[in-house]
Structure formats: structure tokens, C-alpha cells
Amino acid sequence: MGPQILLSVLFCLIAAVHAGQLSLQSPKLTVVGPDGGKLRSEPISLQKRADPVVLGANDILKLTFQVTDQTSDGGVQPHQTFLRFFDSTTGEEGIQPVKVTPSGKAKFELNMAKPPSSLPPSGTAPLRVSLLLGSFVHGPAALDLFDLHVPPSASAPVHPDESFYHPRPEIAHTFRPEPKLPPRFVSAFFAALVLAPWVVLFGLWGAVKPSVPHLFSPSILSFVLSLALIEGLLLWYWVELRLGHILLYGSGAAALALLTGKQALVGIAARRTGSSK
Amino acid sequence: MLPSLGAVCLSLFSLFSAIRARSSTGDSVLVLLQPNLSRDNFTIFFDNLEKQGYDLTFRAPKAETPRIIEDDVPGFNHIILFAPDSKNFAQDVTPQSLVTALNAGTNLIVALSPKQTPIFTLASEFSLILPPPGTPLISHFPARDTPPGVIPVSVPPVHPFLTPNTPPIWFSGIPFAHGNNPLLVPILHAPAESFASDTDSDASADVVFDYAERGGEGLWAGSSLGIVTGFQTRDSARITWVGGLELFSDEYANKPLPSGDKSGNAQFARDVAAWTFHEKLVLRIDSTTHHLVNETEPREHYTINENIAFEAHISRYDPESGWAPYSGLHDLQVDFTMLDPHIRTALLPVSDEPGLYRASFRLPDRHGVFKFVLDYRRRGWTSLQSSTTVPVVPPRHDGYPRFLSAAWPYYTGAISTSVGFLLFATLWLAGDDKGVKKGKSAKTE
After folding, report:
1. Rounded distance, CA A182 to CA A188, Å?
2. What is the pLDDT of residues A126-175, one digit of tens each?
3. Are residues A22 and A140 in the same domain?
4. A51, A139: one domain
5. Average pLDDT score, chain B
6. Cβ B377–A164 below 8 Å, yes or no?
7. Cβ pair B182:A224 closer than 8 A
8. Residues from chain B contacting residue A167 (CB–CB below 8 Å)
9. How many domains, chain A?
10. Which residues contact B18 (CB under 8 A, 6 or more apart)?
11. Whether residue A103 sits in one domain with residue A13
């Protein structure tokens, strides 16, 4: 029986201790402009979220409140009095402790000209400001105060290797421009110009009317054919052959041309000397 | 004859055990337990591991054997260091030997406590910023009947490797701030209302306030702090730092939450071990190849401006079934690099072919020795790295276009010169030498 009573007494004691929930009395916010003029001054309602507070680069935000015990309404000094600034878009968070006197009175100043290092790097989204009250003897309280717009700050430093952990920007190679060809008719015109002397040649040909009576003599025909073979080989080389092929076939054709050429020259010499005799 | 038979048996046995391995790297685990704790404090955690096929070896921190590194080879695939209060270890357990083991591919789970020990100091080498010794994490939220140092922490519902909807877990220990090192893998953050403090009464509120004013690292508070944080080295070995040993204990696993539900400690501890011991988020490159777009075989070298395809086969490890082709990566990229990346393009999974990723692109018009570089690093996943060298050459002398319209005048010029020469030679050789005859006839006349 004894221990049971002791236990229940202990339980009641714990319950009594925790019955006193922490709360705020007369919370008030003031925004002071750079020239010392009050831009805004109003009590904070804990039931309804206040309008967002907008701070300029040199404005000062002042918060005053008294921490009280909800049951006794007396001022208390809690163990933990933290203002939490939270950016829900980036997940960045800043915790700023607030000094509270033993009577529970607290004053907090946020000077945007010298922002505390705990203020998270901010973007365009507002920071949610809430007050965390915690104590060993009283019940804790988390109070949502207001949204705060502060001037955007430089982003947090990034590790040099951080970019490797995200998809990196694609890189495309810039190619040299394709070489431009002149219009085909220009090329065709100049090709025709190159062929023009043949017209003159054939014109004169008609006037001279050369004849080739010895064309079918064996020595000359074979030389002419071997010359044609060399020319044909060169044409073939241009179309598809490789250098190795042309050297092989060309040397054969050249040897043939040398032999037949000698024959042809001997034949001509014989004909000429024979006719001069 | 006998020894060779024995060797065959041994290799068969090792093959068999390799097939049955739970982790992708191996199943042997060394557990260093500090003397005032026994295995009985952690039966749920350790029995879970053994049930899954891990082979646990227990050792006191001051015992000489088995050693962490024997003959420069790590003796175990994984190490669990549950000795946060031990200041003196046997000679082979030093921060250096732990780092050496980590470099050799051993995975570690390390528990910390507010006491300053060599292991406590080692944590700062892993980009964790620890609070001063003796300052545990406390939280007055939510109102509950446990001491402020024993905190229910909710587990994120969406996480790459934690089981979804794990109930909150009990935690007591220290928090750590994270450096901006991308090798860190945050697993569990501290609750937003918690902070590190060594004070134990409301009267010391000013001390808490002064922490922040003192400068330096300031106050360890809020949800940006980690209490369980992984770190994956560049070689993909994993080490997990846990702020408090009690997270793994039977006491916390069985302790009901303030809401009356069962705590998630057992499941969370299992998930942390599964990630650390290379069961989850483990990838590997099976092979890479390259070829021209309309071919299948790789070439010795490629010519500038050709269209080329790069392919990679990637597998993921599954603790139940082993390695299997994996097509789930949608942010792979491949670089085509000569000193600088010339081309970086997406390496996309090919539908209908599991595990195959392909990128095709036109080679740049620069010749030289290029590399296909595949460098895939994501927090929590093992990194994929591969580099394939391939020379890119300019076209051969006969590789250029041959019949350009711009060159028609030159072609006709060359051909008509040849034809003209042939015609002249024929005329001169086979022609009538009228002139000579005329001269002769003039003479005779």
C-alpha cells in the first residue's frame, strides 16, 4: 500500500509540474526604419497569424513579450526561449536564442544592417518565424508568430564538388561551318570554258585534215595503246584506286610503254631513214 | 591429391557463401562492444543481423584479436563500433586503422557519446562538427514523462533507403552539424525544437543564451543538425555515425512512444545497417562499349564527325536476389573529354533492354585522344565511374569527298590535257610526214 501511495503522489506531482503550460503575454512587434521612425507597431495575436512583416535592408525588427505560466499567470524564465526562422522552400533553418529575465520579460532585436549569423540564407520565400518555449518544470509551447520577408542574401557557400552530385549542364560541341560550294552552274560554266579550246582545235582540224596512215602498224598501235592504258590507270586511280595499287600497276604499264615506245621510235626511224634512202 | 581436394572444397564453399551473401561486399562483421555492455543489451539488432545471414564476431575494445587489419588486409567486411565511452583501445584500433580499413572497402557503423574519446575526435575528419564534449541533445518537446535527453524523433516519411512510414524512434546522445561536404548522407535530423546543452535547470537559461553569443560554432540547435549521418567515401565505402548507442538497444526498441505505439528503433536500426553494409543503393557498371551508330562492334579508332554510340550496362544489387540489370537511372550523363569535356550528353535507358543505357552523338571535328567519362555520383548511391579511351583521327587521304562540283574545271582541265597528249602522240607517231615529203620533193624537183 505504501509504495502505491508514494507512486500516485509522485504521479500527481509530475502532473502538477507539467500542468503549468508556458505562454506569452503582451507580445508586441515594432519595425523601426533606418531614420528611427516607427514603420509598424502592433501587438501579436497568438490566435490569428499577423500580416507578413517586411524588413528593408536597414530596418530593425523589435519583439517584446513576457513568458508566463498559463495557470499562475506569473512571469517565468524558461530554459529554452528560441526564435526559429524557417525557410520551407529550401529547408534552411536558423535558431536564435532570446535573453529572458527571471521575471519572464524578453526583448529581441533583429537589425538587418547587421543580421545575426543564425539567420538562414534567404531567397524570395518568406521565413516562418516561430517561438519555442521549453522548460524543465513547465509544459513546452511552440508559437507560430508571423511570416518575415527579409532582403535576399547571398546563398550559402557550396562545396566545389557539389555540382558532381546533381545533373550537370549539357555541353554541345560547336562544329566548324561546312565548307561552302559555289553554285553548280558557275562550276559548269568554267568547266565549259576549260573545254572551249577543243572547239578551236576541232575547227583547225577540219582545215588541216590530218590523216593517220600508220596507226595500225603494230609497233605504233601497241605504243599508243600502252599510253592509253597509263592514262586509263590514272583515271581509275582518281576514281577508286589507292596509291599502292597505282604504283604496282603503273610500273607494269610504264615498262610496257618503255618497250613499245622504243619499238615505235625504232619503227619510225626506220621508216624515215628508209624513205630518205 | 588431398590438399587440392581440400582447396576445391574450400573454393566451392566460398562460392556457395558468396552466392548466399546478404551484402554486396561480404557478410563478416566485427562488433567492438565496450566492456560495460553485453550482447544482451542489443539482442534485437544483432539477432536481426544474424538472421539475415551476417556472421558476427564480438570483441572487447581492449582484446588483441581478431584484428581489424591483418597483414595489411582488412579482416572483416564490416565493423560495428559500439564503444563510445572507451578511451583506451587495443593497439590495432586507432582512428588511422579505421580509416585504412574504410579505404580498403570496409563499412563501419560508429556510435558516439558525449564523452571525448579518440573516436569522438575522428568524427570531425568526416565533415561532422561535434558539440563540445559533455553536451547531449535535449528537447522539451513534446511534453512527456521521460528525461529531456531521451527524445522521440520522427523518421522522414520519404527517404531514399529508410522504410516508409517508420514510426518515430527513441534517441539519446549527441547531435552534429554537417559540413558542406557532398560525401555526407544525412539519414536522420534532430527535431527542430531540440538543442545540445549540458544544463539541467531553468535557472541556467542564460548559459544557453550565452552559447550562441560565444561565437565560434554557436548553438547546436534545430533540424539542420544530424543525429544519424552516413558518409560515403569516393571508393563507395560507407561509414555511419550515430549520435547515441542506445538507439540500437532493446530498451529503446521495446519502449512505447508517448502516443503508446511501438517505437521504430528496430526497423530504423535495420535500415541503417542495410545501407551501411552495402545492401541498398548499390550500383555497378558491368561493361561499357562504343561503336558507330549503324554498326555493333567497337572500332580501333574513329574519324571526326562520325556518328557514334556509347553504351553502358548497369546493375543494381538486391539483397534478396543479387545483382540484376537496372534501368531506373534517368540522370546519367556521359562526357566526351579531351582535357575538357567537348560533349556532355544524357545516357538514357534503352527501353526493352534492361540495364542498357545508350547515348549517341556526332564526334567533334577535333582529332586527338578522347575519353568517354562516366562519372555518376549521387548522395547515398555508390558512385559509378568509368573511363574509356578512344582515338579520334582526321579522315585519311582518300577519306575526303572526291567529286566536288567546285572542282569540275580542274577535272575537265586535267582530263582534256591527258586526252590532248594522247591525241598529239598518236598524230605525231602515226601521222603522214607530209612536210618531209614536200621538202624532199622540192629537193628532187
Report:
1. 10
2. 899 999 999 998 889 999 998 998 888 877 788 999 999 999 999 999 99
3. yes
4. yes
5. 89
6. yes
7. no
8. 331, 333
9. 2
10. none
11. yes
